[in-house]
Amino acid sequence: MTSPLISTSRWNIEDGHTLDGYLKSGGYQAIQKALEITPQEVHEEVKKASLLGRGGAGFPAGVKWGFLPENVWPRYLVVNGDESEPGTYKDRILLERDPHQLIEGCLITCYALGLSQCFLYVRGEMAHGQERVAQALNEAYAAGYVGKNILNTEFSVDIVLHWGAGAYIVGEETALIESLEGNRGMPRLKPPYFPASIGLYGKPTIVNNVETLANIPWIVLNGGDKFAKLGAEQSTGTRIFAVSGHVNNPGVYEVEFGTTTFRDLIMGEKYGNGIRNGNEIKAFIPGGASAPWFFEEHLDLPLEKTAVDQAGSMLGSGAIVVMDHTTDIVKACHNVVRFFARESCGKCAPCREGTNWLEKILQRIIDGNGRTQDLDLLLDVCDNISPGITWPPKQTTICPLGPSAVSPISSAITRYRVEFEKYLTKSKPDIPVIIKGGAT
């Protein structure tokens, strides 16, 4: 039996992003149903669903909502639409193709938690997504779905669209809050700045990812129990994955969470459709650039949080990046590390200094000027950022950006140390070159 499309059901509807298209396909029925029951009952349905956050951490949304302290007002909902993890583009397409679904998810969440203010933070580079959300908000306000006395009830909510400036670090929830307040995006210490207690403007704040909230209307309409029956016991429902890299059919796919395998998604005809040019898989990143790499023996792992965690990586942001056997691992590693070095906010010395040194050492190796001790030096710098170079990472930094730069280095050196050593001996690594019709 094919699992239902929950978050992506309107992607093939030409006008699915408009209010008319949304209403014709059942839109805003969930908020009407929610307003007919109590906020506590709505919250209970989300808890029954066991909806894990889709932003990377995978924390249950219903449980997170329950962390708000009682009788502390005002309180806020902040939507994390700063999709900045390399290889991740599911939220961007959700914003572009179904913005009203996100708005309805925000409304239901605000009703369940007794909120009257929501801030929708969208990444600065997502110009098309920003325009679609702005248009949808204007339509929703004009039709009475957002604003005062929604659907002729006493429930009122304002949704503010905020455009970010394009910094990776503001994908971290406390840095996002800093940015919303007009400050430079830098993470806060947790505790005491745990957003549910001390968040935006020092008030209780729930921060949820775009995809997380896109699931809420379906859960309210169909029930948390029905959502929980989809997927695996600890990874319920469906989830959107972005598959990119050396596959024949890169794209964004919604699959049943926890029962689909990496092999299904990468090799399946309906999804990635195998490796380009008939090549062999060499490595793949299972959950965005900050995740430790997986290899061929991991292909049959289910897309399930616990299983992937136990195997030494994470599903993270749902970005699967595939590398075939023609990939120069050293250059691939350098490319990822360079990104994190550029995106460090500079607040923590181990990350500010360490990520830049990692990039410089890797560049020196690639340029043919590497030294025999450079591999040990790389791992030593990694150990100073993330002691023990273990997973889940220990860290000497406030947020996980520093350890994110450690993941590709530890993965690549552990598995393909010989490729690094060939650079150090100034002999060209034996990397197959793609030619027309295949690889040699």
Q: What is the percentage of strand-forming residues?
A: 5-15%
Helix/strand-derived category reads: alpha/beta
The tally of strands reads 12
Number of domains: 3
- The tally of helices reads 17
Tell me about the biggest sheet? 4 strands, parallel
User: Cα-atom Rg, whole angstroms?
Assistant: 22 Å
In percent, how helical is the residue content? 25-40%
Characterization of the model:
By secondary structure, the chain is of the alpha/beta class. The chain folds into three domains: 19-228, Rossmann fold (3-Layer(aba) Sandwich); 231-324, Ubiquitin-like (UB roll), CATH 3.10.20.600; 329-424, de novo design (two linked rop proteins). The chain has 17 helices and twelve strands. It has a four-stranded parallel β-sheet with strand order 3-2-1-4, with helices on both faces. A four-stranded mixed β-sheet has the order 8-7-10-9, with no helix packed on it. β5 (231-232) and β6 form a beta hairpin. α14 (329-343) packs antiparallel against α17 (401-424). The longest helix has 24 residues, at 401-424. It is globular. The chain starts with 18 loop residues before the first helix and ends with a strand.
